[in-house]
Amino acid sequence: MASDDLKSKSAEIMKKVLTVGVGTVFLTEEALRSMISEWKLPKEVVGAILESSKKTKNEFFQTLSQDLFSKWSEKIDPMALLQEFVSRNDFEFHVKVGIVPKKGRGSAKASADQSDGEADET
What we know:
Layout: H1 2-26, H2 29-37, H3 43-75, H4 78-88, H5 105-121
């Protein structure tokens, strides 16, 4: 009977560990925190689990993206794709350049010069 109780407890623990393991990838930190808090673990253990889950999630997505990119780059030649794009399309560039005087700076000096000239003439 004791061995049956031990087996059921160990099965329950393994189920929780697997849930956390899979949950680290697909659950948000808040959802994972609420799931772990139900187990009444010390704060240090919860913090360690959350930190480990964050690291695991980052490693998982980094590895996944590297694998996807390598599979993509094996099947697609970027240079051939670019050459095909250039050969099928014409490129047009439209440039408009204008010079506009700044407001306030040039006109104030010109009006001051005009008023000085008027004062000298009288």
